[in-house]
Amino acid sequence: MTTRAARFRALHAAGQPLVLVNAWDAASARVIAAAGAPAVATTSAGVAWTLGAPDGDALSRDAALEHLARIVHAVPAELPVTADIESGFGATPADVAVTIRGVLEAGAVGINIEDTERGSATGLRAIEDQQARIAAARSAADDAGVELYINARVDTYFRGAPEETVGRAEAYLAAGATGIFVPGVADSETIGALAKAIKAPLNVLAQEGTAPVAELAALGVSRVSLGSWVAEAAYALTRRAAVEAYTKGTYTELSGSYDFGELNTLMS
Question: Is the pLDDT of residue 143 over 90?
Fold first, then answer.
């Protein structure tokens, strides 16, 4: 695990971003790994949907960790896996520490942890509170002897407070975060400014309008995540195929599907 953790950390380089096509179950993780992924990341939304829950702290810690272990087991042993743990699966920093111990037991060497607090007035957790949660995560990993990659998600662009982004990033890094994830930003000018202002690896979320990886690399981005987008696309195909079958009685949407034998062999 120590080797995988070091390898994962080294993959974050400004100008040569780590591209993560996020998985949501064992099969998607194995397909992504087989496509040449240097690491595998989970999407909390995709995982929640797979397990019959909505995204947004509705899934239980036990269910999430059990599912994570299956994903880790599904990919080659040397491949680093990082887990999206939403806001940490618990109300207190001590709860976050319990989650981290479970993440490490499952075999993952990285996490995303967000600062959204559902039900709060602003939608964002108080900075000091989030610092305590990140510090608890770092302490739990240090106790286990693992250099866990803590990707601190800053949800200011989702919550209408972009002016807080850099300040929150600095506070989270001081608390023990390794890198900073700022989703909700697509324009290159803003991404470039964030990459210059944040003194740590910057992760952006690919969305409609996001520049290609090569341009993001030139802006100084260290990590590009596809997030729930791939799972959404898979479910969109499912819906199109269902609508076509029920309305037209045809199956054209399924052309180009993964070959059954190839996929079955991949999962063997």
Answer: yes
Give the range of the structural domain holding residue 240, as residue numbers without chain letter: 229-268
Residue 57 dihedral angles phi and psi, to the nearest 5°: 65, 30
Claim to verify: residue 13 and residue 94 sit in the same structural domain: yes
The whole-number pLDDT of residue 119 equals 85
Q: Nearest to residue 40, comparing CAs of 140, 102, 113, 109?
A: 109
Q: Give the mean model confidence (pLDDT) for residues 74-78.
A: 96
Q: In what order do the strands lie in the sheet with 202-205?
A: 18-20, 223-225, 202-205, 179-182, 149-153, 110-114, 81-84, 40-41
Q: Which two tokens stand for residue 79?
A: 């491949």
Distance CA 57, CA 54 (A): 8
The tens digit of pLDDT for each residue in 15-40 reads: 899 999 999 999 999 999 999 999 99
Q: What is the CATH number of the domain that holds 26?
A: 3.20.20.60
- The DSSP bridge partners found for residue 202 are 180
Residue 194 pLDDT greater than 90, yes or no: yes
Residues written for the chain: 268
Statement to judge: residues 119 and 218 lie in one domain:
yes
CA atoms of 107 and 161, how far apart (whole Å):
35
The domain tally of the chain equals: 2
User: Does 237 lie in the same domain as 121?
Assistant: no
